[in-house]
Each structure stands twice: as structure tokens, then as C-alpha cells.
Amino acid sequence: MPEQWSGFSFIVTNLARFIRPDEVTFSGVNSTPPMLACLLAKRAYDFDFVYINVAGGVQPTPSKIPLSSSDPVLSEGSTAIFANEDFYDLCTRGGMDLCFLGAAQVDGLGRTNVSAIGDWHNPKVRLPGGGGGAVMLPTARRAVTWRTEHSKRTMVEKLDFITAAGGMHGVVTPIAVFVKRDGRLALQSWHPESSLDEVRSRTGFAFDTDGATPTPLPTRREVEALRTLDPEGQFERDAKVALR
Amino acid sequence: MNKIMSLQEMVALVPDGASLALGGSFLHRGPFAFVRELIRQGKRDLEIVKQSPGYDIDILCRAGCVKKARAGIVAMEGNFGLAPWYRRAVEKKQIVLEEHACATLTAGLRAAAFGVPFQPVGGVHGSDLPALNKWASITDPYGSGKDVWVIPAIQPDIAVIHVNEVNELGDARIYGTFNWDRIMTRAAKKVFVVAEKMETVESFRERPELTLIPSFMVQAAAIVPNGAWPGSCWPLYEVDYPEVESYMDTEGSLEAHMARAPEAKEASHA
Fold first, then answer.
1. Which of A130, A137, A146 lies closest to A96, judged by CA?
2. What is the CATH number for B233?
3. What is the DSSP string of B90-116?
4. Chain A contact for B96, CB < 8 A?
5. pLDDT tens digit sequence for A64-116
6. ipTM of this predicted complex?
């Protein structure tokens, strides 16, 4: 029987699929899915890449998988501490190949809002703020984000505030994978239990669908790697990702 | 000169209205015992400077101690999401927020550390943050044609850093990542250290390269075991998640949470 996607495995695994051989890849604070994606890629793929993280880890081998993606256990087994100033400077000088960054709203150009819902000065909801975004999104070679909710509230025509510009290379939601093409987000694939029409109807911006296909199912090794990282299914339960 | 004093004596040195840079990140190695003592002593109108605050800014907002926050990302992290009392304080305009990217705040601290009025920072292009903060951009005076955003100096009055070990002179070292703490200590006018443990001066002489903060930069130090509770302090203890959950219960009492803190228990035994 072929493996199936859950909303959670869809997000984590498709984030991992953006990771390429030998590249410097970073996961940050408030970023559980990318943390899991980096650790999954280390287990499921045959190639090597340089995994660095916000806990100062350089190629770490953490003895446990923390709830917090900035937990210092993520530097365990590391041969160096590459602290916060270091990885930002690496990024701005062009040495960060792939950077995972959070977002509350994403627009068709791949820009993000992580600052406020509503007017910044009179917010309906004050959001966390962009952290690395405004500096890393325009300077990383590629940046990728994720949303656990795919709706016209999150995938918007117009951002309430532009926290970070420069444009995401990729965006993963529970039903779709977008990748940047000619400066705009284009659909690369959709969750096989969803459809092109559903992705269109739940997205606030227009996008190119040339060549888009249903997302290839997870491989046996991807499934096993995720199971190793989340044997009790706690991360999956906590993430509360629903297809609809 | 012996810099060691009690936590209460150290916090008494903080005037109302002070600008405090707090070390650590989110729930990890924050000077949380110090922050709770600020609340016990009823400090007011504080400015909090930190790239990634969480519990610290939230509990200070909950207690009404904050006037202004200069921060890059504020959250409780893990499964806890937004920092509820901070969020409310911003939405109700009880505090002023100066929103940064983590690296723009660092650039401001670097300007102060380098002794220059402003500091260039990479990126930021296309963001609404410069207009919000009235940041300027300058063209490379050496002719590359590139424009660079420049951030004005940010000089906190006091950097407060939670460390693993200190000696009586005030030299301090951290195990694991030091987050943004190094630049905070170089930017601030004064440095206060809260340590898990006292170590000998001799042990620092044996491994001086492990010292992050040299003693001559430190004005005060206190020994508070488990002082980063309910957060972690690598490699000694992990986040106390049940306690953070209890803190996040909006029906729960701040006083009850504060009474469970290690430094409060210590005081009641004294």
C-alpha cells in the first residue's frame, strides 16, 4: 500500500524537499516544521548538507527533538557554536543557501507580514514580528516558508504590512507547494486529496499553474524518518494541521 | 573588587525608566529571576531591548513595568504561540513598540558598541519597517552604487545576562550558544550578571578563552541557581513546560507563579 500524506507530514516533508546537497541550510526560532524538515532530510536523503540553526548548532546530532526550535539541545554534538550574529552576517554576505522563515500572511510576490493584522498602529492582532525576515528574506539565496492554514486570510492579494520583502523561493501549506517563477509564486504541486480548483479558491492571489501536478507521495524513507522524529505523534497532534 | 551581591541588591540599583537589554532568547537562558525581582520591587517605565523576548517581556507587561519594547520577534514559542500580556499591552497601547528585525536591533547595538552614531545593516530592502522607524538609507560613498540602510545607535543602560558561571571579580562564561549576549554587553553602559554558580578566579585563568564577559565590564553579579526558570539553562536544566503552561493560564495568578520561582523559595528559606 502506498504511503499517504497527512497535513502535517505534507508540510514537514515538502519543506525538506527544498533542501539541496552541500548547501548551508538554516532553521530558526518559532520554526518547528523547518526544524523537523532539516532533521528529516538528514535521515531520509543520501546527500549531505550543512545544517545550522538558531541554537548555534553546526551539523548537530541532538539527542532529543525539542518542542522549542531554539532549544539549546539543537547544538548538541555540534563541533562549533555559530551564534546569532554569525548566522545573520553569513546570510547578509551571501553565504546562506536556504533559510526557513515564518509568516502570517504571504502575497503573490512571496513577501510576508508577521507584524500585525489590521493597521500596524491600531492592530486587530499584534503578531510576533518578523525576527530575521526583513534582513534574511532579501539576502538569503533562497528562503522558504510554510503556513498551517491555507486561506484567503493567509495567502493574500494585499499584505496588511510588509514585514519582509525579497520574495520567498517556496511556500508550503497543507494543500499546496508554491515555488517562485519569474518573480511570482507559481503552483508547483497540490496535495493529491485536494485539487487545482480548491487551491485556487482558497488563495487570495493569482498564480501560474503551468506544469503543476499532484504532489508525489512521501517515500518510505521520508515516512520512516518522520516517524523516528515523532514516534508518539506529539508534534503532529500539537501542530493541529487540517486539510480543510 | 568583589562584585557579588544579592539579587535584591542588584535590582535595587535599577532606576525606574531604565533601558535594559536582556540576554538569552525566548525560553532559553533569560535573566528571568532578575525580571521577577524587578516586578517585586515595583519598577516602572522600563525600556526592554531584546531581539527575541518572550516570557520576560510578557511577565513585565503583565505586571505593568514596561513603557517601551524594542524587539525583533516576541513569542512564547513551542506550542504556546503569542505572548498574551505583551500582545494585549501593544494592542491597548499601554506600551510603545519599536519593531525591528533581529539584525537591525543588533546593528543599533553594534553602533553603540563601536562608538559610532549609526551602523549599516544588510537586507531590509522592500520592508515597511524603515518607514515605520524613520530609518535612513545611504548610498555607498565609495562608488559601488549600492544603497544601505543605517540604524541609529541603541545604547541600553544595563545589559542583564544570565550565565552559567561567574567568579567574584565578575568574569562570566556561558555554555552553549550565547545568543546575542556578547553584543549586548559591549553596547550597554553597564553589565549585570546573574549566574547559576560561583567558580574560582583560578578556573577562569586556566581557560580565559571561555570567558564571554571580562570582569572590568561588569558592575554587579548575583548567584541565583535555577534563575532562568521556567526557561532552560544549558546544560543544567530544560524548560519547565508545565509551569509555562500554568503561567499562560489567563485565569491563573501572577503571585502564585512568582511564589513558585526558585529565588522566592530560596528567600523564604533564608
1. A137
2. 3.40.1080.10
3. HHTTSSEEEE--HHHHHHHHHHHHHT-
4. no
5. 999 999 999 999 999 999 999 999 999 999 999 999 999 999 999 999 999 99
6. 0.96
CA dist B122 and A224 (Å) reads 40
A21 min Cα distance to partner chain B (Å): 26
**Domain ranges, residue B51:** 7-101+154-265
Region of B45 on the Ramachandran plot (φ > 0 left; ψ -120 to 50 alpha; else beta): left
Q: Which stretches in chain B have pLDDT values below 50?
A: none
Put simply, the answer to whether A120 touches B132 (Cβ < 8 Å) is yes
The three grid cell numbers given for residue B262, joined into one nine-digit string: 526558585
Q: Which pTM was predicted? A: 0.97
Contacts of residue A115 in chain B, CB cutoff 8 Å? 99, 128
Round to whole Å and give the CA distance between B52 and B102: 7
pLDDT tens digits, one per residue of B243-259? 999 999 988 899 999 99
Residue B27 is assigned to a structural domain of this protein: yes
Total number of domains in chain A: 1
Best of B124, B148, B150, B174 to substitute, by most chain A Cβ atoms within 10 angstroms, is: B124
Domain residue limits at A124 = 7-238
- Count: domains in chain B: 1
- By DSSP bridging, strand A170-172 and strand A176-181 are antiparallel
Facing residue for B28 by CB, picked from A70, A88, A126: A70
**Residue B230: inside a domain:** yes
Q: What is the least distance, in Å, from the CA of B9 to any CA of chain A?
A: 30
